[in-house]
Design a protein that fits this description.
305 residues; alpha/beta; globular; disordered N terminus
């Protein structure tokens, strides 16, 4: 999709006109009543760290996902050598609070990495994520060398039949996926499923072999235990790297769900788009990797003062 079309029909146009309601397209989705914990939490209006705390409580609390003594992998987007205000990468405050809550839940180790697009050490440093993670008690692990990756078979994949996957994905007890909510020139938007391209070495294969199908295929091999989509700052155009802060709106939003398809579907609504408009979301739903039909799920929608 061309940038001018995205701006005219997607969140760019909606935000500029002020037409997008508080929870985007989620505003009109009532969903099923929650019998206990919610399937999805959508929070608006706070800082990134506090919105995470509110969201995780709605979907069962961190103790539901992380147990004492477990090793946890937290996978943000750290792909670009850009400062936090550009929203090319995940908000460091969100990542730090997740690391802290994992430690509070008794995690023995919390690892953070990404297979970056720009030079890895500059991405880690200039994103603000490296310092934030270390301050919270986590460990930054590089993803820039092929020796860190192990080849695995993906027997249920349609286009993606094998991939070299970072060893932390294979060795950790808990996998937490923390993408930033942003525009992407190849897939329209980049959310939770798209963020998993950062755990494989040979991701160029995706681009030449049906990108949307490959993104869904990987989820047949490994789905995160928890997905936190950071929309504190949202990149509305020129993604995935962006050009300047003019590409960014301070949306103050966060979505959390253990269902990666549902999380992406909910975030897509906040772009003013429908999940069926995003190839890999529809494919993953049809492959029964999660549920994009939000009206069938229980959704907690919270506005922070």
């Amino acid at each position: 999709m061309k940038r001018r079309d995205f701006l005219r029909t997607g969140i760019g146009a909606s935000l500029l006109s002020g037409a997008l309601p508080l929870f985007g397209g989620l505003e009109s989705v009532n969903g099923m009543p929650a019998s206990s914990d919610y399937d999805i939490a959508a929070v608006r209006g706070g800082n990134g760290a506090d919105m995470f705390d509110r969201a995780i409580e709605a979907i069962g609390g961190m103790g539901r996902y992380v147990k004492s003594g477990q090793k946890v992998l937290v996978k943000p987007n750290i792909g670009w050598d850009a400062p936090p205000e550009r929203a090319a990468n995940t908000n460091p405050d969100v990542v730090a609070r997740i690391v802290q809550r994992c430690k509070d839940a008794g995690a023995s180790e919390v690892y953070v990495f990404d297979n970056t697009c720009n030079k890895w050490d500059r991405c880690y440093r200039n994103s603000g994520i490296e310092d934030a993670v270390k301050a919270a008690g986590g460990k930054m692990i590089p993803g820039n060398t092929e020796s860190f990756y192990r080849e695995v078979e993906i027997p249920n994949g349609v286009s993606l039949k094998k991939a070299k996957v970072h060893k932390l994905v294979l060795e950790s007890d808990v996998f937490i996926n923390v993408p930033v909510m942003k525009h992407h020139s190849s897939t329209r938007i980049s959310l939770a499923m798209k963020n998993l391209m950062g755990v494989v070495w040979d991701r160029k294969f995706y681009h030449s072999n049906d990108l949307h199908q490959c993104i869904a295929d990987f989820c047949t091999y490994k789905k995160p235990d928890l997905n936190i989509i950071d929309g504190y700052n949202m990149m509305t155009k020129n993604g995935p790297r962006g050009v300047s802060v003019a590409d960014v709106t301070n949306l103050k939003a966060l979505i959390a769900s253990p269902d990666i398809v549902a999380a992406d579907a909910a975030a897509t609504k906040m772009f003013g788009l429908q999940p069926t408009e995003i190839g890999h979301i529809k494919i993953a739903h049809d492959m029964k990797l999660g549920n994009m039909n939000l009206e069938e799920l229980s959704i907690s929608k919270q506005k922070m003062a």
